[in-house]
Amino acid sequence: MKLARRLVNIPIRGLTGLACHIDHAELARVPLQGPCILLGNHITWLDVPLLMTHLYPRRIIGLTKVEAWRNPFMGGLMNAWESIPLRRGEADMGALHQALALLQEGGLLAVFPEGTRSWHGRMQKGQPGMVLLALHSRAPLLPIVHYGGERLPANLKRLRRTDFHVVVGRPFHVDAGGAQVTRQVRQQMTTEIMYQMAALLPPAYRGCYSDLSAATETYLRFPPGSASNLLGRNY
């Protein structure tokens, strides 16, 4: 698997480097090992290969929709990256158990909580599956957001490189604090997590999480010496 990962990462990194000017300096802040859940926003088909190859040699394993394996090329790529197939629209306990096992072994798990690409770059509503992973594994969550990739299709037609910016936030935990984790609580946890991601993006990309004044942190815990991502960045 190490050889397969290397064989696919090197050419893909080269190709994405030709198509994009990638501002990836902050990826150095991603730990070399876990346990850790990496949270990314999902814009185009470029997101996963670009981030996976620029995080190499870290062994990142992602949750990927099972439909990807219907395409022989994509299926081979997902196998090289050891991706975990996920059946969307249902409680896929098999995928959940594989993801939890990875985190328990000290692995790095990549999750795109929006569940589908936006293509326009603005954040969409998050899905609560990541909350179950965070609660059961007790692993920290680390937001890794990006923007600019939505211009790729148009720029390719004009033979222009696309500016692709990556921002790595501060890690945090999800903690129910003894409360019963009802559907409503899971939804609030999901919303709180998504606001942590949105705060790292320029305002035009925050989508349905654009009003940061509405963000809460009831179920979030930050490590000593760290701080909320809502304190964020200046653009």
Explained architecture:
The protein has 235 residues and is α/β, with parallel strands linked by helices. It has helices spanning 2-19, 47-55, 72-80, 93-104, 129-137, 152-157, 183-198, and strands at residues 20-23, 36-40, 60-65, 84-86, 108-111, 141-147, 162-168, 173-174, 220-221. The protein has a single domain (2-231), classed as Glycerol-3-phosphate (1)-acyltransferase. It contains 7 helices and 9 strands; from the N terminus they run H-E-E-H-E-H-E-H-E-H-E-H-E-E-H-E. Strands 1-7-6-2-5-3-4 form a 7-stranded mixed beta sheet, sandwiched between helices. Strand 3 (60-65), helix 3 and strand 4 (84-86) form a beta-alpha-beta unit.
Query: What's the number of extended β-strand segments?
Result: 9
* CATH class bucket: Alpha Beta
Number of H/I helices = 7
**Largest pleated sheet:** 7 strands, mixed
> What oligomeric assembly is this protein in?
single chain
Would you tell me the overall average pLDDT? 91
Radius of gyration over all CA atoms, rounded: 17 Å
Strand content: 15-25%
In CATH terms, what is the architecture?
3-Layer(aba) Sandwich
Poorly predicted runs are: none
- SSE arrangement, N to C: HEEHEHEHEHEHEEHE
Secondary-structure-based class equals alpha/beta
Task: Categorize the overall geometry.
Answer: globular
Strand order of the largest sheet: 1-7-6-2-5-3-4
* Helix content percent band: 25-40%
Distance between the termini: 40 Å
Question: What is CATH's topology name?
Answer: Glycerol-3-phosphate (1)-acyltransferase
The domain tally reads 1
